Amino acid sequence: MNTSASFDFFNFDLTAPQPTLDADLLRQLSFVPGLKEILMLRQVHALEHATVWVLSESKNLNTPTQGITSFQIDNELLGGLSTDQGFYLYGKVNISDLRRAVTLALHRLTNGEWDLAVHPRCGTNLSVAMLLTAGLAVGVHLLVPFRPIEQIVGLGLAATTAAEIAPDVGALAQRYVTTAIPFNLAIENITLTRDSWGREAHFIRIRWQEERS
Hints:
By secondary structure, this protein is α+β, with helices and mostly antiparallel strands. The chain has two domains: 18-118 and 179-213, no CATH class; 120-178, no CATH class. It is built from five helices and four strands. It has a four-stranded antiparallel beta sheet, covered by helices on one side. Strand 3 (185-194) and strand 4 form a beta hairpin. Helix 2 packs across helix 3 and helix 4 packs antiparallel against helix 5. The longest helix is centred in the last third of the chain and has 31 residues, at 148-178. It starts with 20 loop residues before the first helix and ends in a 5-residue tail after the last strand.
């Protein structure tokens, strides 16, 4: 399955991810409070996305497609929430399938399938959309005449423009800001638990390691 087909627009990587970058940064700036947690959160975030993709692929492979070929199928019944200690996986999934999916996701991410770190349903996209909408709305308000019709048309154009460009800008934000390839993560265990809101989920606990074995 060609997982990069969904994100061809972003195949212009300025530089390939460096396996030792985060570990080197942590060694050099170990005095910065919370740095390790931030670095872990970005890597866990990427692994969360990749795991959802892998589980979605598995579901697609087990479902008749009636001759329709799809490069990337998103199972919208699955969702995740990342922390600096691991991530919650929401949705009905067999723990054995989840264990295999997390292991495969980590392997694929660290072996060149970096597009798996980007997911269209990530909260980053929503945040970016809100910021773009607010920014464009303020710009339009200041630039167009202060008459009701012009203001309404301008706000409509601002909202439409934000909706059009938000997915691409959100994907860029994910790739370069809110996720990082998990070169320093190792899977510790997977348990069925409840999050702080009482929702049932699997928690995939992660630990930091300086170098991959």
